[in-house]
Amino acid sequence: MKKIKAGIIGGAGYTGGEVLRLLLLHPAVEISFVHSRSNAGKAVSHLHQDLIGHTSLCFTDTIDSSVDVLFLCLGHGESRQFLAHQHQIYQQTYQPTHPQQQHNKRRQQVITKHVRK
Fold first, then answer.
1. CA–CA separation, 47 vs 41, rounded Å?
2. Domain residues for 27?
3. Which pLDDT does position 77 carry in this prediction?
4. Of 11, 39, 43, 90, which is the most exposed, with the fewest CB atoms less than 10 Å away?
């Protein structure tokens, strides 16, 4: 059976630690990364001491986009900001703006203004 690749954003907090503990025990899940800006490079078990001996994972400040599922364990309101930032990066990387798109957007605004009058 193929394992599901999972990533955790905000793995240094309480919620991230609990999600990590549950996923480590799940037979069908492989944890690809545990993200933490402030703890990058440190062992996960250094912060979550209940996981000593259960994992050799380290926190990272990079995100593996090949995961099947992503758990957002950030503080209040931070998940929305994180997703908005990731969406901007996605658009810039995979959907570059073509000059014609800008022209069409401007034309649409002018038409909408004219129709409302």
1. 12
2. 4-116
3. 83
4. 90
* Residue pLDDT, tens place only, 58-97: 999 999 989 999 999 998 888 888 888 887 776 766 665 5
So what's the pLDDT on residue 59? 96
CATH code assigned at 45? 3.40.50.720
Q: Which amino acid is at 56?
A: S
- Cα separation, 99 vs 90, in Å, equals 18
> What is the dihedral sign for C-alpha 71, 76, 78, 79?
positive
Burial class (CB in 10 A: 0-12, 13-18, 19+), 100: exposed
Q: Which of 4-8, 67-71, 91-95, 111-115 has the lowest mean pLDDT?
A: 111-115
- What are the b/e assignments for 67-99, b being 16+ CB within 10 Å? beebbbbbeeeeeeebeeeeeeeeeeeeeeeee
